[in-house]
Prior knowledge:
This protein is of the alpha/beta class. The chain is 38% helix and 18% strand.
Amino acid sequence: MIELAPSILSADFAHLADHVQRATEGGATLIHVDIMDGHFVPNLTIGPPVVKSLRKVTKLPLDCHLMVENADEFIPAFVEAGANWVSVHQEACVHLDRTLHHIREHGALAGVVINPATPVEMLSEVLDLVDYVLVMSVNPGFGGQKFLPNSLHKMRRLAEIRTRRGLNFRIEVDGGVALDTVAEVVRAGAEILVAGNAVFGSGDPKTNAEKLLKAAIEATLLKV
Length: 224
């Protein structure tokens, strides 16, 4: 099943509730929240108070992507604020196994993220622990970047490993997902599509979400 997770990083925060509502009407089933600490990535975004406010205006699961150092310190606060899914970077977690268990212990779904330069093989020991794997198809830190085609082979590889090992994690993609790239990411195996600029950049979020989902679903029908 294909799911759309609009990233609020590209939304107008003065109209955040309205934008989230419109995207939901367009078929979004998750809301993606990019959390950056200015250390692990060169940008600073939001903290638990915004997640808590967002929780009040949507019933959809909140997918919180922690682009932070010392993720263990932040997990309890974000889950308490309303995060349902929490993903952490392989590159930022010294004790990744422990961090993933920490997320689960707080009642959230646990995800692991890999940057464009990180091989899928770095995840081999945790794939049985995670609910989803997020493949970054841009270098993290800023919205509106161009899709990196080299990420496609990672999605294919993850799908192969999942089948071979009989695992159940889902495959999520974040970065440059738009009308001109969505078909290839779906055909490569992505099931959860994070899209910021393509949904919130210009025009009506509802219409944009509908078009993106339509293109994604059509691609699954053509999938060989």
